[in-house]
Amino acid sequence: MSKTYPLFVKRDLDGFFGLFIDNLVQLLLILGLCGGLCGMTGEYSSLLFKHIFPGAALSILIGNLFYAWQAHRLAAREQRSDITALPYGINTPSLLVFVFFVMLPVYVESQDPVLAWKMGLIACLGSGVLELLGAFVASRIRQHTPRAALLSTLAGIAIGFIAMTFTLQIFHKPLLAMLPLGLVFIALFARTRLPLDLPGGLLAILAGTAVAWLLTALAAAGVTLPDWAANSQMSVSQLAAQRDTLGLYLPLFVGGEVFQLLANWSDWVGYLSVIVPMGLFNIIGSLQNIESAEASGDRFPTAPAMAANGIGTIVAALFGSCFPTTIYIGHPGWKELGARAGYSTLNGIVVVLLCCTGLIGLASALIPIEAGIAIVLWIGMIISAQAFQATPKDHAPAVAIGLFPAIAAWGATVMMGTVLAANGTSLQEMLTANPATEVNGFLVVGLLTLERGYIFTCMILSALVANLIDRRFRAAGIWALIGAILTLTGLMHSFQLQGNLVDYWLIGQQTAEKTWLFSARGIAIGYTTIATLCFLCGMSPQSKSSGH
Fold this sequence. Notes:
The chain is mainly alpha-helical.
């Protein structure tokens, strides 16, 4: 191994803690959602500890090792020591969508956690196959897509689904989270050396964990804590209870079950309306993250990076995990941290250790998530900034418009969660009574319309504006036509609503009775109108002018 690019550098610790916290959040989501919604508790908890977690760990390890190897290879080829491996882990949107729109409906209908798990495997496998196929066309898509269109989507996701999510948690438990936040900001923005020259991420987690257990000890000693401090305690009983899950759980090949279910195509074909959109979104998301890495100076080959992503997801399905993996958002943040390839390798090893020994529950009971989220918040800030810094200055408006659909998607997600929690008037009842219903001045149907396929919408609007700024009318018109086509197929904007569950409404898809439908044909006509205007402007003699 090259001395100029070692297996591990000190700053890989910071990168590891950030990436690990990100993966830990996904694993805890799986534990909570599969247990709470899909019946994987009691005797059926073995589906989690014997199949899902070991399968997920294997897929994460394969991906982490591949991307670390890819970083070493690029460093050797370019004779550089500052290459940062692509971050990788479980895909959060796919996790949520597959639970709520594949596994949960199967469990509600059959009351069989095993069948819900098997259908999740089919969904995961389908997503992986699509991601693998996408590797063969990804390079061409990158060549014809403005950088602003690729990076603005990531910035929107970073603002709404990373930075905002973790900011709310920080200010919910400030005693735990604000000390780590200050340490991370001082270490990474001011570049100040911390005590014992410890990495900022490590010190932040140690400090947050120490505060949490200090408050717990004070409460145990009889000290009455005010409400704003009491909510930051840890649970000793929960920590003790996690001992029951300890054991050795090696990944088990379940391809036989998968292929047996595949043969009964009528059992799963109805879920293609969920599997296909999510697979396509994962392709575009991975593509955007590779572009983000190149904007930071690390040019990884597109096809191998995306193929490894697809293979990792296929491995997950064949070894028991229902949840696709993906190239994570955040490469510029890890690079800014000083992480190289070691953080990726270390993350894979630790995730395997936790998932294959049952320690995942023990780790979650020992370390408060708030102690580490400052690192992930910082990553979100860096990604958001990169969208403007790494694109031509003239393309700033294109970046800005690309943020809007992702922010609308965040708003829709918050609104849907609130309505579900309130358990009152459903979204379907609300929109049936008045399709123009507003919540605090925001159109409900507008939020849902922009939320459906928002990754595509961000990309198309940004590419359209970037090409118009450059007076490339034909290219702008083509992007508008792509928007029309994706809208007509149902991959953007159209949706169906049953109660509070929002799902895609794909072209030709049969819908259940008493379903509220929103057809986006009018939006498709709108995109076509914009395309026509662009083509007409392209034919005008004035379009040859260099003026703006």
